[in-house]
Amino acid sequence: MTNRTAHPIEKFAREAFAAGWALSGGPMTERVRTACETAVLIATEAADDPDVLKATIDLGKLEGMWALLFQRREEQQARHAAEVRALWRDLADRDDIAALVDRLRHQLGVFEARSPEQRRLRDDVLAAARAMLRALADRSGFTALRIALRNAIAAGRAEGVVNAVAIAAERAGRIGLDWNLAFKDAYQAMERLDDLWADAGSWLSRMIDGVADDLGRTLADGLEASLDRDALIDAAGELLTGDTEAVAFTVDWAMTTAADEGALALYRSEGVLQIDIISAGDGRVCSSCIDAEAGSPWHIGDQPRMPLHPACRCCYSADVSLAHFASWFL
Ligand SMILES: [Zn+2]
Predict the structure, then answer these.
(1) Ligand 1 center from residue 190 Cα (angstroms)
(2) What is the pLDDT of residues 239-255, one digit of tens each?
(3) Quick one: pLDDT at residue 114?
(4) Residues 6+ apart with CB under 8 A from 16
(5) CA nearest neighbour of 283 among 34, 59, 37, 43
(6) How far does residue 304's CA lie from ligand 1's centre (Å)?
(7) Residue among 192, 194, 165 nearest 180 (CA)
(8) 92 SS3 class
(9) DSSP code at position 51
(10) Ligand 1 ion: Cβ-proximal residues, 5 Å cutoff
C-alpha cells in the first residue's frame, strides 16, 4: 500500500477517462485499465493545465476505440477459423488417411533411417502428404472451403474499411459510429468484387501446404518412432480433424491482410495521400513494425505492406473525410 495522498484531480481524471471510454462503446480490457492508470498519472502531473480533463476524456475514447477494434477482429477471426476448421474435418476420411499411410510404409520399406537418410525421408513424407491433400482438392468439400475462405476475406476487407473509418473518426473527434451497421454496409459492397475468389484460391493453397506440413511432420515423427499402421492412421486422423494449427493460422493471416487491403482501398478511393502506421503494442510487435511506425507518415503507395508478419496486428491510420460515411454515424 502506498501512503501517498491522492491528488484531488485523480478522482475526476478517473471519471473523465471512464466517460471517454464509455463514449467509444469499447470493451473493458486489461489494456484499457492500464491506460487509465497512465492517463490518471499524466493528469496529476499536468493538473494545472485547464484542458487536462478534456485531454483525459479523449484518451479514454482513443483506448476504447482500439479495444473495440481489436475485439471485433479477434471475434471475427475466431468465428471464421472455426467454420473453416469444421469443413476440414469432413474432408479426409479414415480410408484416405489409411491409403496414405500404406503408401508411405510401402515406399519407405522398413524404417531405419540414419541422419543423411532422415532428411530425405521427411521430404518424401511431406511430398506424399501434399499430394494426398491436393488430390482431395478435386472433391466437393473444397468448394465449401473456398467459399468459407472467400467469406472470411470479404469480412476481413469490410472490417478493414470500418476500422479505417473508426480511426479517422477518432482522429477527427467524431463519435457515434455504428460499427455493426457500417460492417453490414461495407460487407454488401464486397459482393461485387470478383478478385475475392482469386484471393480465396491462393490462401487455400497456402492452407493446404500448411496442413500438409503438419501432416507430413506428424507422419514422419510417427515413422521415426516406429508407430504401427493403426497408430499412424490415428495420429494423422487426429491432426486432420481439428488439431492442425495451420488452419487458424492461415485464416488469421488472410483476414488481417484483407483488413489492411480494405483500409488501403478506402484511402485510395477517398483520395488520401498520407498514411501512418500504428503498432499494436501487444507483445507481437517486431522491429520491422516499430520501424514502420517510426517512418510515418508514409506517402500512400510507399508504405510497407501490412501485415508485416503473420499475427501482426499493426494498422494503417489516416485522416479521411467522413462525408461519404455520414449514414454510419448515429
Ligand atoms: Zn506488427
Answers:
(1) 26
(2) 887 667 889 999 999 99
(3) 47
(4) 43, 53, 54, 56, 57, 60
(5) 34
(6) 11
(7) 165
(8) coil
(9) T
(10) 285, 289, 312, 314
